Amino acid sequence: MKISHNWLQEYIKTDLKSEKIGEFLTDIGLEVEGIDPFESVKGSLEGIVVGKVLTCEQHTNADKLKVTTVNVGNGKVLNIVCGAPNVAAGQTVPVAVVGTKIYGKDGSSFDIKEAKIRGEVSQGMICAEDEMGLSDDHGGIMILDETKFEVGKNFADYFDLTNDKVYEIGLTPNRTDAMSHYGVARDLNAYLSTHQLVSDFEKVVSQPLNNEGTTDFQIEVEDSELCPRYIGAIIENIEVKASPDWLKNRLKAIGLSPINNIVDITNYILHGFGQPLHAFDADKIAGKKVKVGVNEKGTKFTTLDGIERTLNGSEIMIKDGENKPMCIAGVFGGQNSGVSETTKTIFLESAYFNPIGIRKGAKHHTLNTDASFRFERGVDPNMTRTMLTHAVKMISEIAGGKMVGELLEHYPTKIEDHYIILRYSKVEQILGTKIHHEKIKEILKSLEITVLNDIQNGLEISVPAYRADVTREIDVIEEILRIYGYNKIDSPQKISFTPVKLSFDDQDALENAWARTLQSNGFNEVMNNSLTSVKDESDAVKLLNPLSGDLAFMRKSLLEGLLENADYNIKRKNQNIKFFELGKIYHKKETYLERKQLAILVSGRDEAENWLQPKSTTDFYKLKSYVKVLLDTLPVAIEEKSLEDARFSDAIELSANGKIVARLGKVAPELLKDADIDQECLYAEIELEVAQSFRTKDNLKFKDIPKFNKTRKDLALLIDKNVTYAELYKAARSNPSKYLKNINLFDVYEGKNLPEGKKSYAMSFELLNEEKTLEDKDITEVMNSLIKTFQKEFSAELRS
């Protein structure tokens, strides 16, 4: 949000410099991200003087150039070569002397230098209006009225130029009260007045109106819930034309383009006070009646941008007496009822619309306007009438209009302020410091919060309706703190805490532990939008009111988002990918399903390139090792089997107690092609709810570190090529011995010196007796049992 310093000074007078104001605004939660200069005319016409063309001759070497002599005052006459077709002797003109910087529309600039043009010396430039930034006219040089412009004078002296500073405020969505210059001034005044700093702030009030005669116009609100307050005014005999320079400069400073005086006035009220207004051409309103309600679903309506839109039947609409739509209320006006140069009478509306209704209409039609931005967050219902009176007065002064009849108003039920009880003890508990009770009252008063009653250990207060974000006691405490000053709250030198009992019912603890494990292994966490587009809509969850067509569904998998992250990094020469994400996925089957997963994506090298490590890419087994490190923290035996999944070209599924815990494998080439990735990616997903179900007080216990050493034994097995390690592992795990603790595959060999159709697996087995040193007979018993199992189930042979 852009806030003009000069505009701000209309509501709060202070001698503070803009840099200091920026600091104070940041301190109270209106974070100033930058302060930029603004000039109504770039360069402020510096270096341009009023000159008199003395002579004008045809250039001897160029048909389109003239050679002139120009008097620029103080007896100085300049030779200037000019290409304008309308230059002539005797004219009074603006002249850019040597050293002047001329600015182009695209932000470029060049310096006027003395130079030779086709053999003739040129010591300046006679300027056209567009070259000085005064207009877009480039039909020729600007010719001045010699009775008004004095030769030798600075050209800028004849213009009311504006130099300003513009604050760029990173406004949080909850601060609807500060979405205007007046709102920022009000907040700044609250801070200054409670910190003994001088400021002059006057609360805005309604303007007295002079109206003539009566009007036949009527208003009708069909549903007061959709539009709790609606006010209109009929203004006749207006002249639609360009706005005065001061109004144009106010809007230009904050990045708005002036349109005409009526539209500019509504924008001035919107950005000045935060109340959106809309003007209709009254002569185009059928039946002289304005209705607020809804139109039937499927009704066609063309908005100001020329786009024909189909209404869904839930938008709040402004209609004429024949129920024809004129405007999507609080969002966007209609093409056929807008103000034009021929408009003579307007219907000016000011309203408080239901924020939810406005948001639905705006999002359905993917419209985000300055008006909808404020309406859908809640404007001040008590400013509705006040701002209309200000606008009527401005239109009378600037456009010459006269209001006819009284204001037309619908306001059946007053919107009440928020009643809250504030406890002093709660303030001290939350802030960790004691603030004098009178200081609290002073801060509340500065924020226009009314103290109704003093009660035991607290206050009964009334919070203005425009503070839509302050409805609870904790919200009031936050308001007190930001005005009191975050920097005044000292951090304690000593922090005391009570250790809490370790709970395995906390899934957040599991997620945090796994996240730390991955981070310590070089992974980066990402967070992607859960809204996306999908190719297969069969089991997808579709939003009823999507933000856009690209964000119409809830994601069915975390893989697509991680692939987008990988593509973004790879295109920026970061080919080594180690990402993980904790997030939810959504499906619609017989009912809606929601699951939380931990997803991992790896690609490229696992370790950074260095002279000790060979250059190799990460592989499936490296990914599996990361997953295993995580799942090893669960007190269950993990089984694996091959998996058929369209997302993978080759994958396995890990399960425990009959529940699927994880899936991992190589990402299918089709998905990589869709993501525009040309390197192999590997992906794993862990079902967090399933993993958490294994972590209970009964099956996860702490135990002492063994006092005795493990014993390792190796077996080299000759087996058929179609036997997998997973089968061997499962068979070994079924061994009843309580001494068998760990199983590992450390070598695979296929090639010479082996019978055809055979391969060799070298496996290690770790044995441990936790109560005493393991004896040879116990070791032999376990190993013989394993050998018999391998021989019986897989016809394995021992290799020497």
Give a quick summary of the entry.
24% of the residues lie in helices and 29% in strands. The protein has 800 residues and is α+β, with helices and mostly antiparallel strands. The chain has a 7-stranded mixed beta sheet.
Structure notes:
This protein has 800 residues and is α+β, with helices and mostly antiparallel strands. The protein has 19 helices and 42 strands. The strands form twelve sheets. The chain has a seven-stranded mixed sheet. A five-stranded antiparallel sheet has the order 6-5-4-7-12, with no helix packed on it. Helix 5 (245-253) packs across helix 6. It is elongated and about 120 Å long.
> What's the total number of strands?
42
Helical proportion?
A: 10-25%
Instruction: Please compute the radius of gyration using only Cα atoms.
Output: 38 Å
Q: Which term fits the overall shape?
A: elongated
Largest beta sheet, briefly?
7 strands, mixed
Put simply, the count of helices is 19
- Calculate the terminal CA-CA distance, rounded to whole Å: 78 Å
Question: What is the strand content?
Answer: 25-35%
**Structural class of the helix and strand makeup?**
alpha+beta
Low-confidence stretches: none
Major sheet: arrangement of strands: 30-33-34-38-37-36-35
- Average pLDDT taken over every residue: 91
